[in-house]
Please model this.
Amino acid sequence: MDVSERIAALEEVPSESTVLFRVTDDEGEEREAILVASDGPSGGCDDGSRDGCEAERPAELADGPQLSCWLNYCQHLTHIKIDKGSGAPMRDGELVCANHGAYFDSESGECTYGPCEGAYLNGLEVTVDGGDVYLTDDDYSFVGEGPIDDDDDLTSTSNVKI
Model:
């Protein structure tokens, strides 16, 4: 595995929250992504049966959690982050958008409740090798841990336009 694409040690991925990190796409745009572990059987999209699934997820581990990786934004309003920097809220194995109350299945990325019900989070491919999690998506490169530095911009991100 390419060491520069290492996201985290598998043991660092919490089962009831997320790991936030930064990636760049093919055009050099920096984006945030989240890594999430779940205990259930694979609900991923690799069988081609679900519209909206773009990558083979989750990464299946023989004796451990299922791992999924998503771009860090809600499908309802894409400037809203699911993980705001301290781990995404989760309930019964689903990621929760704290702004709208939308629920996303942590394995498939499908919105199961809320204003974007039926939409899917955009997935990135990850692989576990030697106890470490690596970004293996051809369209993205790993940049680093944590959120994008916004220079402590405290301006409003309200959805209301006056």
About this structure: The CA atoms of residues 77 and 160 lie 12 Å apart. The chain has no helices and eleven strands. Residues 41-58 have pLDDT under 50 and may be disordered.
